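User: What would this chain look like folded?
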Amino acid sequence: MAMAGRLWRVCNLLMAAFFGLAAAVQVVYLVPAALTLLVSINPSITGNGVWRSLCDLHSAGCIVGTVALACSLFAYAQGNILHEEEGRELFGLVIIAVWMRLCRCSAKNPLAGFRLTAAVVVALFPFVSWLYIYVNKEMRESWPTHCKTVI
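Assistant: Here's the prediction, encoded as structure tokens.
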């Protein structure tokens, strides 16, 4: 179990780094960056009422944003949704909502098995995606200038 606990902390540290980097361009990532950093330092913080309230409020906002962006994409997308600004924002909100849910569930039961595997996959997904996009020049060609200069 000690190994699972360390892996959970490392996943939270990776996600805190991702959310922190993403917060430089989208403020919505600032709250999950702070909450996730706290979990990486002290996993039992997820049982704290203030932490849980902030997590719930931010998750609810992300879910509302996800629905709004999905409706917009459904109505106006013209091709690959990753080429649309709203598509990239949608995936970011989904990552936040999923990660906050994993963190919140860890208060009752330490992560192990399937949930720990899901945490590792979700923690690696943003970095693997960034690497794929960085390598795939064809995908970046249709992006607006501000997206091309961030990478």
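The helical segments are 2-23, 30-41, 49-76, 85-105, 113-135, 137-140, 145-150. If you want, I can go into more detail on any region.
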